[in-house]
Task: inverse folding
């Protein structure tokens, strides 16, 4: 197994922590994490999932 240049798992964990600590409603947090589970089930890469749960992207999703 080769080591990648980026540690996406660590970055995803940090992004998830930011979501948990954010002032979003619990319903929005649950929706975000449910969506992340769907992305994993669809087979998306860690890099794509990280882009999806970045704070800027989350803010845009909550506004929709």
Result:
């Amino acid at each position: 197994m080769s080591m990648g240049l980026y540690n996406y798992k660590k970055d995803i964990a940090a992004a998830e922590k930011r979501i948990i600590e954010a002032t979003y409603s619990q319903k929005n947090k649950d929706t975000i994490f449910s969506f992340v589970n769907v992305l994993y089930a669809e087979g998306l890469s860690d890099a794509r999932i990280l882009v999806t749960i970045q704070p800027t992207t989350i803010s845009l999703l909550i506004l929709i």
User: Anything to note?
Assistant: Residues 31-64 form one domain.
